[in-house]
Specification:
By secondary structure, the protein is an alpha/beta fold. It has helices at about 70-80, 95-100, 100-110, 130-140, 155-160, 170-180, 200-215, 230-240, 245-250, 265-280, 295-315, 320-335, 340-350, 360-375, and strands spanning about 5-10, 15-20, 30, 35, 65-70, 85-90, 115-120, 140-145, 185-195, 220-225.
Length: about 375
């Protein structure tokens, strides 16, 4: 007989995590989650790390669910003082059927005109399609599904076992198709791509092709990362259930490592990009912009530089050569002047004068701006 889930409602003092600027993967500046722990219980989940799962016994993670009962009220209070930017939220584990906190937080975002990005493993998100469509009409809403295999994948049974109680990937793809037809931008977070299980050419192709076939508009991919108690937990799982995988994982994840060694992540990223290009779906999420948002050109230029930095990573360019593009992207996010006006008044010298923008990054921005002007004319 399985262990019974226990819910522990409590009232935290804050729920909204604020970041200085949007990240360059999901384009979200704020994150908020109404529960600690997850009934889906995916064995590899990064949320088992100490900073996300403050449990004395890590085995409590899928069975002891801490419910932030005042999350919607705290979110409203925090967003009242916050600049408009995309909020990452959503937690459609079974607890959400009972407590409906994610739905209430979506209602807050709708009422306050905040765009949302939802990362999810459950078709339960369709329950809130009405709110997502309303948010999308006023600003924008994106739903990404976490998917790492299909029923036809080579190691489907093993991967499903590691996903524990998460709904089958076919149900996630079906929900994706409904969202796409409803006009909601949707795609997948192909994360984490588990070495020796998810990184075969066949699985990569199947997942990406199935995404495109179900209306997905982007694929964001990364490999497994592991830290502290989560790493020990997952190694124990592998040792007990899939001991044949342990030698490879011990090589890929030596002590004190976080990501896989030996360029494994870059190799997988290159494979994903090649398959995405062949199928016709981007391996980056286009940056959604808020209608009426100030300094849109700055944000588009920052997106271009961030995409350039990622491409250089995949090409195995030296980190010192990538850094100027990433640093310039951050600088343009922070720039209080309109980039177009700066260039109009001072040309290349104006771009180069922006703190944090190197000569090579300024030339990239100038080239991109001139190309955009030429396209418009």
């Amino acid at each position: 007989m399985g262990r019974k889930t226990v819910f522990l409602p409590y009232a935290p003092k804050q729920v909204l995590n604020k970041h200085k600027r949007p990240d360059h993967w999901f384009w979200t500046r704020y994150t908020v989650h109404p529960y600690i722990g997850c009934q889906h219980g995916c064995e590899f989940c990064y949320c088992r790390e100490n900073k996300f799962a403050p449990y004395e016994d890590i085995n409590d993670f899928p069975y002891l669910i801490k419910v932030k009962q005042n999350a919607p009220d705290l979110l409203r209070k925090s967003l009242t003082k916050a600049p408009k930017a995309t909020v990452m939220l959503g937690d459609y584990q079974p607890a959400e059927k009972k407590f409906k906190l994610t739905r209430r937080m979506l209602q807050v975002c709708l009422e306050m005109d905040f765009p949302v990005f939802i990362l999810e493993r459950s078709p339960l998100v369709l329950r809130d399609l009405d709110l997502l469509q309303e948010i999308n009409r006023k600003t924008h809403a994106t739903v990404a599904f976490s998917v790492i295999h299909t029923a036809r994948s080579p190691h489907a049974a093993q991967i499903s076992d590691l996903e524990h109680l998460a709904p089958a990937p076919e149900k996630r793809f079906a929900a994706m198709e409904v969202l796409a037809k409803a006009g909601i931008r949707t795609g997948i977070c192909f994360m984490p791509i588990l070495p020796e299980l998810c990184d075969t050419e066949e699985n990569l192709d199947l997942v990406i092709r199935t995404t495109a076939d179900h209306g997905g508009q982007f694929v964001l991919a990364s490999t497994l990362t592991m830290a502290d108690q989560q790493k020990k937990y997952f190694f124990d799982v592998l040792d007990s259930r899939f001991p044949d995988l342990m030698p490879r994982y011990q090589v890929l994840y030596p002590p004190n490592s976080y990501g896989p060694a030996g360029g494994t992540g870059l190799n997988i990223g290159r494979k994903v990009r090649e398959i995405c290009s062949r199928i016709g779906i981007p391996d980056r999420q286009p940056r959604p912009l808020i209608e009426g948002e100030k300094r849109m050109l700055n944000k588009r230029a920052a997106e271009m530089l961030a995409d350039k930095a990622y491409s250089m990573e995949l090409e195995n360019v030296m980190a010192s050569d990538i850094w100027p593009y990433r640093k310039a992207a951050w600088a343009l996010e922070d720039l209080q002047q309109d980039l177009g006006l700066v260039y109009q008044k001072m040309g290349f010298a104006g771009l180069r004068a922006i703190s944090g923008v190197s000569d090579i990054a300024a030339r990239q921005v100038e080239s991109n701006m001139l190309s955009a002007v030429n396209r418009e004319t």
